[in-house]
Amino acid sequence: MYVLTAGEARILVGGQEMERLHTGQVVGEMSLISHEPHSATVEAITNCEFACVDEKRFNFLVRETPGFALEIMRIMAQRLRNADQMLKDGQPH
Predict the structure, then answer these.
(1) pLDDT at 21
(2) pLDDT level of residue 92 (50, 70, 90 thresholds)
(3) Which of 13, 36, 79, 83 is the most exposed place for a label (fewest CB within 10 A)?
(4) Which pLDDT belongs to residue 86?
(5) Average pLDDT over residues 29-53
(6) In sequence order, what E strands does 16-91 have?
(7) Which helix (H) or strand (E) holds 72?
C-alpha cells in the first residue's frame, strides 16, 4: 500500500479516471488484502512522493489501531460505490 505524501495523482481503470488522489490518501490497499495483482493504475498528475506501507506494517496497523482498519474499509467501500455508480451512468465520481 502507498500513502501519497506530496503531489496529486489519479486512479485509472481501463484508462478511465476513477478518482483523484491528494496528500494523505492511500492506494494499493486491495492488493495487500487479497494478494492479487493491482486492478487499477495510478498516474501522477504532478510530481508525487509516496510512502510505502508493506504487508508487515499494514497488518500491525490493522491489529493495533482499529480506526485504521475502519478507515481502509471506508475507502474500499467508497471506491466500490463509485465504480458501481460509474457503471450505471458512465461518469466517474
Answers:
(1) 97
(2) low
(3) 36
(4) 84
(5) 93
(6) 16-21, 26-27, 41-44, 49-52
(7) helix 66-89
Domain that holds residue 60: 2-89
Cα distance between residue 78 and residue 86, in whole Å: 12
For 21, phi then psi, to 5°, come to: -105, 135
**In degrees rounded to 5, what are phi and psi of residue 26?**
-110, 160
Whole-prediction pTM value? 0.84
pLDDT confidence tier of residue 67, bands split at 50, 70 and 90: very high
Domain count, the chain: 1
CATH number of the domain enclosing 55: 2.60.120.10
Q: How is residue 37 written as a grid cell?
A: 495483482
CA-based torsion, 69, 71, 77, 80: positive or negative: negative
Tell me the torsion sign for CA atoms 11, 30, 70, 4: negative
